[in-house]
Design brief:
hydrolase; three-stranded parallel sheet; fructose-2,6-bisphosphate 2-phosphatase activity; His_PPase_superfam; two-stranded antiparallel sheet
């Protein structure tokens, strides 16, 4: 939950370092993190291993916090499941007293995603308004956006055809958050925004919670700055080969 703000364990630090090594060749343009300590430490560990952007500012946002679990916070998962069973409900959709509903979590995710889309559009508009500017991305080296996916890729992976498509990225944003929150965000992508998923993805994989430091990668296209109809492609979901 979000009411228990504990640091990473020793295992958590090892996992964060592993994720940092895995992503060390990816040049991020922005980094956002939940403002809870465990995600702050994870984001810092990832950037600390990065070859391009160790000094990039991490921006903390409360909209990225884990779901609030009310009276169940800080207690074992078995307690939450027992509460749900007593209430005659399934665990993922059950809201403990004082907790957030899934709709409330999804609203936070929607609000933050729309903020990211506005940010990307503003970046592009600023670049086009500069004298003599073409596109910020037109001179971008494909090697700045090298993604380490191996056998978890969809056909939409940037750079999969000689690196040429990498240069179309105007923003490459790292978001560090939490398992239950991210599952709701991905659900919003799929159900509300018709996100294209990898062909080999199963329903159970789609509904599962990411392992700690699992990586999901999405390509977002905003044609002509249209914020209302983002085209979203999932390259990989809950990638954990670095673990």
């Amino acid at each position: 939950g979000q009411g228990v703000d504990e640091p990473l364990s020793a295992t958590g630090f090892r996992q964060a370092d592993a994720a940092g090594l895995f992503l060390s060749n990816v040049k991020f343009t922005h980094v956002f993190s939940s403002d809870l300590l465990r995600t702050k430490q994870t984001a810092a560990a990832i950037l600390g291993k990065n070859k391009f952007c160790k000094d990039l500012e991490i921006k903390y946002d409360a909209r990225l916090r884990e779901r609030k679990y009310g009276v169940a916070e800080g207690r074992p998962l078995a307690d939450l499941k027992a509460m749900a069973k007593d209430a005659g409900e399934q665990c993922p959709s059950f809201t403990p007293p004082g907790g957030e509903t899934l709709d409330e979590v999804r609203e936070r995710a929607r609000d933050f995603f729309e903020f990211l889309c506005r940010l990307a559009v503003e970046l592009e508009q600023k670049e086009h308004s500069k004298p003599g500017a073409t596109s910020r991305s037109s001179g971008t080296s494909g090697e700045q956006f090298v993604f380490p996916w191996t056998n978890h890729c969809s056909e939409a992976e940037p750079g999969s055809e000689g690196g040429g498509s990498s240069a179309i990225l105007d923003a490459n944003i790292l978001v560090v958050s939490h398992g239950a929150y991210m599952r709701n965000w991905i659900g919003y992508f799929v159900s509300d925004l018709s996100c294209t998923l990898p062909a080999n993805l199963t329903k159970s994989q789609l509904s599962s919670v990411s392992p700690n430091t699992g990586v999901s990668h999405f390509i977002i296209k905003l044609e002509n700055g249209n914020l209302l109809k983002p085209e979203i492609t999932c390259v990989c979901l809950n990638q954990d080969s670095h673990l």
